[in-house]
Structures are given as structure tokens and as C-alpha cells.
Amino acid sequence: MIKKEIKLENTSPRNDQKHHHSGRPQRKHYPHHHHPKTEEPINSDMLKVIPLAGLGEVGRNMMLLEYKDSILIIDVGFRMPEENMPGIDYIIPDISYLLKDNKYKNIVGVVITHGHYDHIGAIPYIMHRIGNPPIYASPLSRGIIIKRQEEFTTLPKLDINEVKDGSNIKLGPFEVEFFRQNHNIPDNMGLFIKTPVGNVVHTSDFKFDNFPVNEEPTNFEKLKAIGKRGILLLLSDSTGAEEEGHSLSEKEIFANMEKIFEAAKGRIIIATFSSLVNRVQQAITLSEKYGRKVGFIGHSMKSNVEITKKLGYLKSQKGTLLKKVADANKYPDKNITILCTGAQGEESAGLMKVTTGEHPSICIKPGDTIVFSSSVIPGNERTVQMLKDDLLRQKAKVFHYKMMDIHAGGHAQREELKEMIGMMNPKFFMPVHGQFSMLYANAQMAQDECGFKEENVILTDNGKIIDISPEKAFIEKREIPSEYIMVDGLGIGDVGEIVLRDRQMLAEDGIFVIIAVVNRKTGKVQDSPDIISRGFIYLRESKDLLYQTRKKIIQTIEKATASGQVVNWTYVKDNVRNTLGDFLFEKTKRRPMVLPVIIEVG
Ligand SMILES: [Zn+2]
Questions:
Q1: 20 to 30 Å CA-CA from 241: which of 55, 392, 483, 503?
Q2: What are residue 35's DSSP bridge partners?
Q3: Gap from CA of 142 to ligand 1 centroid (Å)
Q4: Judging by DSSP bridges, how do beta strands 369-373 and 397-401 pair with one another?
Q5: What residues contact residue 166 under an 8 Å CB cut-off, 6+ apart?
Q6: Helix H or strand E segment including 99
Q7: What is the C-alpha separation between 600 and 35, in angstroms, rounded?
């Protein structure tokens, strides 16, 4: 494991006061919300289903199937950071279970359902640490994975194999058959997995769609045939389980988008997720219909368009796509569409640059129509709101179109979920992919509306081990690590809770550095201690506070040195930190990070 030191002294005087800001999920154990009952394993012939991540959250999907000495991995995704995680880029699954005792050597393969980052995003951070096992992915997923891997030049080459609808791969005791599922990205694969214990079906993210984009409609006959082979366990997408009825067809989503194109008089600027390939395609098709050229802003947008076009998943007429977005300025506004990243208000992404005037060639003009995807990541609402306000001030029209969202419009809703259960008719049902409320809704629906017994519906969380035999399923008492592993620009997993808490504190209340010079012989503080503060309060306007603070520092240090005994400087620093922390809080109601530096002279 790469271990880089990010060294910031932990100086928090409020460690015990702000538990809710910790970067880790504060999951408590509510055993009555988990079923079936927790028991100890009875024999080793059972299939173990191990969700490392992706349950109780939207994103970072990664699940293991383990049978005796063989492990099959399904997806390796990441998720975006939560609110109050300054400087964190992504959160990836905890793979301690695989690293312990070199267990990763038992991995027989990694199967990928589709090319969304919550299913493939952690590949560059995880594969080389688990022995770079072979990956199996559809052509589009494979293309996106390889393209992204190019950005990580020091990593070993991936062993990545192409699979198609109907491909059958034998991996140790598992036989994996891939079948096509509709979603909002092409080339999405459900998995039929033959195991020594019974057949497992993983739905992937899916919806039933009779009018999809650039691919075939749902093949119900094929799904029914899969179900007829006898399914022991169905792992089913839960993202849409709280929504009644049926998801929108891609055709209906297209029709809704078209209304925006019909009404727009000037340029249309669409901020969306680059991996939402269907929306990108729809925007291109509509642009052609309404006589618009299309330009792209944002690294991941350009990169994904390039790869999807090269592989034939993105179709456009000759001359529709602009080589450089700057060329947009050569055409009348009504003939231009711009697709960009940054719908979440990300600081470095396309839309933010365009809005703030930092983009070298595109800035907002009155009459522009801006289309936003709805915000899914908690904590970004305020940024998106400010971005919208800024756009409105610049006299742009702003639309918030929920279907541009990666998690809306792409997932089976209750009618479809029930239909899937009906076709698969599994003995055990396990909701996957989603917040706990989504998993819960899916589980409850299976019991109330599909006739499942409670003990046959597996409602659980990350880090649990579910043992399954042809007769019985139970959750083991032991738990495996399933922490948030945080990736920042510098490394993987080296941003622990302490570093994160320090960053939160710096971001909120600033830093307060004290430099005191102490005479070793006399134990007296020489001169007046230096104080440097950033992001706390403006010190020049707080002369009185500064005076009192210095007095407090001198008192605290000299109290410790007064005895003439050997001084424990660590203890003295802790003491200064705590005393000053409390003092500053009392005076300002803020808790900056206090960093005492004591220099001995003489
Ligand atoms: Zn997806």
C-alpha cells in the first residue's frame, strides 16, 4: 500500500466535541433493520456474498462473491466526497479484506457491469494493489477504462478483456454469462453467474426501455429464459426503488430535452456528466435537428466523447462536432450548443470557468440557455445555487432538468423492479446499489408485493458477509472493514480522519501558530511570543485579545518551567494548545487549529 505522510500535527482542542464532522460514515448497529438473522456459519460449502461498498450509499460499488478459495469481484467504483471533506477528490472502497493474508491472490477475475464511474472509477487506485487480476468488460466500458488509465502513467498495464452480450467466461468455480441491460449508457451488462451453490443474477444498474438510444430495446424473452434456469439469488439495483411506476424511456427524455431546443433563441450550454453517454448523444442529435454545431468544454467531456465516438457509440454527422470550442465564436449564437462538465458546480470544471469568465474562449452572453443536471451530491447545493444566480445576473436563461442527472431516468422504478423479480423468480433477493432507504424500499416491496419471506430477503450494509446455501441465507456475526478510503491529489488512503478533521478545522476556523522562545537556563519566555494566524480573526484589529493571548502563553509555559526540573516539552505544548484553545473559544466562539512551536535557547 502506498503510504505517504501528510503531516499536520493534530492540535484539535475539540476532538471530543465534533464527532459529526468525522469523515467516516457514522454507522451504528441497528440489528433489527438487518435481515435475515445473524448467525454463525455452519459449513464452508456456502457462497459468500461480500459487499465491500455501494450499500447504504450511491456510488463506489464493489462486491465480492467468494466460494472456498476463489473470489470474483463485481465492479470497482468510486464516489464523490461528502460535504465538509476539504481537498478530498474521491472516496473508494476499503480493500483491507483482500489485502489481509494476501487473500487477493484468490481473485479469479473482475467483472464490470458498465462504464459509469460509480462502477469503474476506483480501478486506477485499486487494481495494482490486488495483483492486477484480469478484468472483463463490454467494449464501451473497456474503452472508457483504458482511456482513463492512460492518465495514470506509472501504473502497470491492465489485463482487460472484452465481453459481449452472450459471452460466457469461466473464472475458477464461477461461470459468468453477460447479458445486455438498458440504462443511460450503452453496453451495460447484467450478470448470470453459475456457482457451485446455485445461480446468481446481478442486474447491474438497469431500466426496461422499449425506445433506447443507439441500442436494442430490452429483450424480455432472453430475461425470461435466464429466469427459467433457476435463480438462487437476485442482486437487484435499488436506486429507483422509492419511485412509483415505470422509469421514462430514453425516447421520452429526448422529447423533454427537445422542448428546450425548440424554445432556445441563443446558444445552448448543457452541463452534464461526461459518462452519461445517452444524454451527450441526445444533445448532439437535437443540435443536428435544430442546425447547431456542438463544442465541448472539460477534460473528461472531451476524453469521453473521443472514446465513445471512436468506438462507434456516439454518432454525429460530418461537421457537427467542433474541433475547438473557440470555433463556436465563428457562428451565430442560434447555431451553437456547448456541452460541458461541472453541473455540480465543481470549481475547476467547465461551467464554473465559463460563468466566472476564466474560460479562454467562451463566456456567458445574454440570451444563452443554460441546462443544469440536478444536484445529487449532498453539499453542492449552495455552490450550484450561487452558480445559477451568477448566470441569471449575466442574463442567461437557466433550466434545471432532472433527467440530465446520472441517477435520474436511468434506473428501474417499482413496476420494473417487480417485473424483474417476477421473471427471475429467485429464492433469495438482495437489494444493492443505493442509500439504505432505497435498499429498504426494494426489500419491503419484495416482501409486501412479491410474496418473499423476510428471511429470504437480504437487507444489509457494507462490510457484512452473507452466507448462502441452496436452502438458507444468513449474515455472519463478524464484520470486515468497510471504511471510507479517501483519495486526494497526493495519495490513496493516507488522508485519515485526523488529517480530514484538521482540514475541516482549517477551513472553518483557521489556524493560530504560536512561536515562543524559552531560555533553557532560566525557564523564562524571551521577548514576546510570535503569533501567526490565518483564516481566524484579523489580529491587528484585536490588539487586546492579542495582548491577553501572549500573557496566557507566557503564564502557561513558565508555570511548567518554574520548578527547575527537566521539562516535558510535549506536555507543555499540549498544555498551551488546550489552554489557548479554550481561551480563544471563550473570547471568539471559534476554534482555530492551535500550533505551538517552542524553541529552546541558551
Ligand atoms: Zn450507472
A1: 483
A2: 459
A3: 15
A4: parallel
A5: 177, 178, 179
A6: helix 96-99
A7: 61
Write out the H or E segment, with its range, that includes residue 444.
helix 436-450
Pick the closest to residue 119 from 63, 44, 200 (CA basis): 63
DSSP 397: E
Residues 168/143, Cβ–Cβ less than 8 Å? no
What SS3 string covers 10-64? Answer: CCCCCCCCCHHHCCCCCCCCCHHHCECCECCCCCCCCEEEEEEECECECCCCEEE
Instruction: Give all domains of the chain, ordered by start, each with its CATH number.
Output: 25-245+410-483 (3.60.15.10), 250-404 (3.40.50.10710), 498-601 (3.10.20.580)
Cβ atoms of 593 and 502 within 8 Å: the answer is yes
Tally of residues, the chain: 602
Backbone φ, ψ for residue 207 (5° rounding): -145, 160
CA of 602 to the centre of ligand 1 (A): 66
pLDDT digits 0-9 by tens, 409-420: 789 999 999 999
Give CA–CA dist 441/427, Å, rounded. 19
Write the single-letter amino acid at 2.
I
pLDDT digits (tens, 9 = 90+) for 286-297: 999 999 999 999
Q: Residue 341 gets which letter from DSSP?
A: S
Q: Which residue has the cell 493516507?
A: 494
Q: Is the peptide bond before 529 cis (omega within 30 degrees of 0)?
A: no
Beta carbons of 197 and 219 less than 8 angstroms apart: no
In 75-204, which ranges are E strands? 90-92, 107-111, 135-137, 160-162, 168-171, 174-181, 188-194, 199-202
Residue type at 300 in one-letter notation: S
Distances (CA, A) of 198 to 224, 231, 234, 424, 428: 17, 7, 11, 13, 11
Distance of CA 115 from the midpoint of ligand 1 (Å): 7
CA angle 407, 119, 201 (to 5 degrees): 95
Q: What Å distances lie between residue 393 and 153, 356, 358, 386, 388, CA to CA?
A: 42, 12, 17, 10, 9
Share of the chain above pLDDT 90, in %: 57
For 107, what's the count of Cα atoms within 13 Å in the CB-facing half-sphere?
Answer: 24
Give dist(CA 190, CA 523) in Å, integer.
72
Mean pLDDT of 421-425: 98
- At CA 279, angle to CA 240 and CA 420, rounded to 5? 30
Distances (CA, A) of 159 to 142, 144, 379, 501: 10, 14, 37, 38
In whole angstroms, give the CA distance from residue 60 to residue 93: 6
CA 104 to ligand 1 centroid distance, Å = 26
Q: How far is the CA of 114 from the centre of ligand 1 (A)?
A: 7
Active-site positions? 237, 411
* pLDDT tens track for 56-78: 988 899 999 999 999 999 999 99
Distance 182 CA to ligand 1 centre (A): 10
CB 136 within 8 A of CB 113: no
How far is the centre of ligand 1, averaged over its atoms, from the C-alpha of 236 (Å)?
A: 13
